[in-house]
Each structure stands twice: as structure tokens, then as C-alpha cells.
From TrEMBL:
InterPro entries: MBL_Glyoxalase_II, Metallo-B-lactamas, RibonucZ/Hydroxyglut_hydro
Positions of transmembrane segments: none
Ranges of residues in domain Metallo-beta-lactamase: 30-194
Protein name, as recorded: MBL fold metallo-hydrolase
Superkingdom of this protein's organism: Bacteria
Pfam families named among the record's database cross-references: Lactamase_B
Organism per entry: Leucobacter alluvii
């Protein structure tokens, strides 16, 4: 049986962090790249660091789209090369184009993501949820029939994503999680852009603690 499955490719790279010195410091980072589909076709969620490793995992399957959860460099830096390798279109929410352009310059994504936009792969529907806060154009992709949501850097095991930049907003990310993600069934698997997964039910009780600590 040609069964739909979720595959994870873990890729390694670096991010630059400004610690107040003369130059930003480079730190190693691992990203989760998610591949959803069957033996014939897939969609890819995020394109981090290593286009070759992602393309190798896809193999000869048709790629219906590269769906980006947000515009940070470590989630998009392999997108253009990957799109060329797989003859695929890149999807990004327009509110993150300013971040995308810092990595890829004038080469724009192919299609603008919008809240409630849906994608079909092997009979499975993925629905776009606009979840601003980490970045203005952050999105998650919910796949109800797989009991899964791909949360990018919006929700992790233990709390929301970082909101330390001037374009980020802690109140916004809390609102996004509360109104877009927590209404999902409790058994929904949360598959983030970094690290281990969790479930909606596991994270819901901690909301008041997040509010109290402010991050």
C-alpha cells in the first residue's frame, strides 16, 4: 500500500547572534525539514542548510511545493537550490519577504502563502495557519488527517518561539498559539522546526506559566 508518511531530515548549519560585540557570533544549529507524502509525490516544509540531503531524501518523487514556515535564514537558505534541483515552487508568506531578501536578494519566492490556503498531497490536505509573533509572516501547516501540525518556530516542546527581534511580538505569538494552534485536537502531534516534538495537549496547561515569565 502506498501510504502517506511524514519524514524528517535533520540538517546542520550556523546562525549569527548579536551579543553586543563588534561582530555577530556564529553558533551551530540543527533544523528539522519535514517531507510529507507517499512513494510518488511529496511536499517539503522548510529548506534548511543542505539542499543535497533534502533532495536525496525526496529521491525521484514529484515535489508539489516547498512550503516555508517563515523567512529566517536557517529555514530558507537552501530553498532556491532545492527548488532548482527538484523543479518545485517556493511558497512564503509575504510579510516575511524582508527576511527572505536578506538571504536571497532579488530572487523572490514563487507563490505567496495566505491564511487558510490549502495543499493536497497524496490525498492529504495541509492547511496554512498564519501565526505571527516569531516573525510577521510565520505560518504553521495543519494536517488533520495525520493528526499533525508543522509548527515551524511558533510552538516548541516547552513554549513559544523566540520573540527577541524588533519585528517580533510576544503578545502576538501567544495569541497565534491560543487562537490557531490550541483549538486543534489535543492529540495533535506538534512537529517543530528544531528539536523534539510534542502534542497540543502537552503544551496547553503551560500557557499561564509562559504568560507569567514573558517569553
Amino acid at each position: 500500500m502506498n501510504e502517506v508518511r511524514v519524514e524528517c531530515v535533520t540538517t546542520q548549519g550556523t546562525i549569527l547572534v548579536d551579543r553586543g560585540g563588534a561582530e555577530p557570533e556564529a553558533f551551530p544549529i540543527e533544523n528539522n525539514v519535514w517531507i510529507v507524502g507517499d512513494d510518488e509525490q511529496v511536499v517539503i516544509i522548510d529548506a534548511s542548510h543542505d539542499a543535497g540531503a533534502i533532495a536525496e531524501a525526496v529521491g525521484d518523487r514529484e515535489t508539489l511545493g516547498i512550503l516555508l514556515t517563515h523567512g529566517h535564514n536557517d529555514h530558507v537558505n537552501a530553498a532556491v537550490e532545492l527548488a532548482q534541483r527538484l523543479d518545485a515552487l517556493i511558497h512564503l508568506h509575504p510579510d516575511d519577504l524582508f527576511l527572505w531578501s536578506g538571504t536571497h536578494g532579488a530572487r523572490l519566492p514563487d507563490i505567496e502563502l495566505a491564511h487558510a490556503a490549502s495543499f493536497m498531497v497524496s490525498g492529504v490536505e495541509l492547511t496554512t495557519l498564519h501565526t505571527p509573533g516569531h516573525t510577521p509572516g510565520s505560518v504553521c501547516f495543519a494536517a488533520p488527517s495525520l493528526e499533525t501540525v508543522f509548527s515551524g518556530d511558533t510552538l516548541f516542546q516547552g513554549g513559544p518561539g523566540a520573540t527577541r527581534w524588533e519585528y517580533s511580538s510576544f503578545p502576538e505569538i501567544i495569541d497565534s498559539i491560543s487562537t490557531r494552534l490550541f483549538p486543534l485536537p489535543g492529540e495533535t502531534s506538534v512537529r517543530p522546526g528544531h528539536g523534539a516534538g510534542t502534542t497540543i495537549a502537552s503544551e496547553q496547561p503551560a500557557l499561564e506559566n509562559w504568560l507569567a515569565r514573558g517569553w
